[in-house]
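BUG: 3D viewer hangs when loading the predicted structure for this chain

Environment: internal workstation, default settings.
Expected: structure renders.
Actual: progress bar stalls at 90%.

Input used:
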Amino acid sequence: MRYINIFATLILVFMVASAFSFIKKDKDKEQVVYAYGVATSFRDTVVYITEIQVLDSAKLDKDGFLPQRNLYPYQLKNYLENKWRAADYTCTISFSKKKETLTKDLNKLQNKLKKNKDNVIIMIPSNDFKFTKPEE
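Structure tokens produced before the viewer hung:
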């Protein structure tokens, strides 16, 4: 009788423990991805930097990379060519799930650029330029 009670208790513990392992974690929960863009040219001392923005409908993949991340700099490049007539700029973006990380990164970049007195930093406000999700 004693062994049956121990066996029943072990089965009950096993069932409870396995029930918690079947609970799905909400991986499809809306995650927020922040990004900012930088455009520089070897022929010009002007550096264009966007404000930190929330990328709409963007989700990082399982490796932590932004899908179609190569298309976001082209949006900035097209904006600069059309609005500012700034051709031949190399554009990049930085992205993260944490806004604090990007803020530190952006401040570090700005301080590095300010060391060279010739650089002119132009901040592009979010109401002027906004990254959009690329078409799939």
